[in-house]
Amino acid sequence: MLSMERIPDQVGYLVLTEDGAVLTSGGELENDERLANIVMSLISLTDKIDSKAFPSNEAFDKISIIYDNHCYIICLSNKKVHVIKKKFSPTLAMNPQLVDIQ
Q1: Looking at residues 28-52, what average pLDDT do you find?
Q2: Domain 10-90's class?
């Protein structure tokens, strides 16, 4: 299992149970119960999306929320909700060839 601290450009993380309790956290999201509640509310909204557009047998894989200088990535794995807050640069997102990979 990859340690959440080792994810490139992450500035904070949360790992939640299926009912929204914080299991582990760190960085800017350490013990952020407010964000945990927001994330769980957002996930519950995915159940209410128009079933004609998105069949009900398709659960969400990943939710990305993008701001000017950071983003949140939310995913479900092993019956846990993982939330990562990462630095975000629109310039790099639009021009991936500018990223220096070593």
Answers
A1: 87
A2: alpha beta
